[in-house]
Amino acid sequence: MITGASSGIGAATAVALARQGARLVIGARRMDKLEEVAARCRAAGGEVVALACDVACRESVEALVGRAAETFGRVDVVLANAGYGLVAKIHETTDEQFDAIVATNVKGTFYAMQAAAAVMLRQTPVGQGRDRRGHVIAVSSGAGRRGLPLYGVYSMTKAAQLSLVEAMRVEMKEKGIYVSSVHPLTTATEFFDVASEKSRVKTSGAGKVQTAAQVAAKIVKLIERPKPELWPAPFSRLALSLAVFFPRLADKGVAKTMGSRKR
Ligand SMILES: NC(=O)c1ccc[n+]([C@@H]2O[C@H](COP(=O)([O-])OP(=O)(O)OC[C@H]3O[C@@H](n4cnc5c(N)ncnc54)[C@H](OP(=O)(O)O)[C@@H]3O)[C@@H](O)[C@H]2O)c1
Asked: Which ligand 1 atom is nearest residue 5's CA?
């Protein structure tokens, strides 16, 4: 089950999984785009159900996971991917902007995790050791590890996702439910167009750009071999971990990197 599958990383992951014959339930708000992705999945060899879903609404997320369980008998993987970016300095962010991004990025992930757990805890374990009930994956960001200027509230939502993942992974270990986070850096998707529209300011990615297909290929590997965190861009994990020990240096680094963003 994938949320936010109508474009970008979610769509690319759906198609990559379909190539391996996956049975998918995909959700997003724009049904026309979602149906296009569903058609690409079918052409690639996958079986797919496309359903309108707004992750800011608990019932909508529960319906998506429920539909996956009902259609295919079990839900092996839930990919909480839906999300968007906001460009606004902290002191300029409105309450409306704050509440809206928390509703989608944080609550949307929280709802998906809860709906996944409700179904997965009832499932018979599978896998070589008969120890795997399911895998919950949240698409966070490199910004989940280090707050970025102009992306402060967005970074907070990505850090919140990481905290939820870290806690749930330990809570669910004995139950055979694996929980992972994904931390892409700049990826060529609709993300920056949507962020520009939401923020009413033109923004674009910084640093080396990955394609959605590159990130998707790594998510497929993560599903094959679960691990706590996936950092698709080379050295990004190391660079952002160093920020914990050298915050002043990190301040300078992000100021320089983010300098290329228009504001
Ligand atoms: N692109 C990057 O540079 C980058 C870097 C780090 C992390 N990420 C993260 O990667 C994830 C995917 O983003 P992307 O880069 O693939 O951007 P994207 O192309 O804009 O895709 C975002 C997806 O989320 C869906 N979505 C947004 N709000 C939703 C809602 N309320 N309910 C249901 N679906 C919703 C969109 O579908 P609809 O509009 O049709 O609903 C779309 O399918 C996000 O969580 C983002 O924060 C992206």
From this structure: 43
Label residues 163-174 b or e (16+ Cβ within 10 Å = b): ebbeebbeebee
pLDDT score for 192: 95
- Tens digit of each residue's pLDDT (9 = 90 or more) over 52-74: 999 999 999 999 999 999 999 99
Please report, for the chain, the start and end positions of each structural domain, with discontinuous segments joined by +.
75-258
d(CA 162, CA 156): 10
The Å distance, Cα 88 to ligand 1 centre, comes to 18
- The ligand 1 atom at the shortest distance from the C-alpha of residue 104 is 31
Fold of 75-258: Rossmann fold (3.40.50)
Q: How buried is residue 98: exposed, middle or buried, by Cβ count under 10 Å (0-12/13-18/19+)?
A: middle
Q: Rounded to two decimals, what is the model's pTM?
A: 0.97
232 Cβ inside 6 Å of ligand 1: no
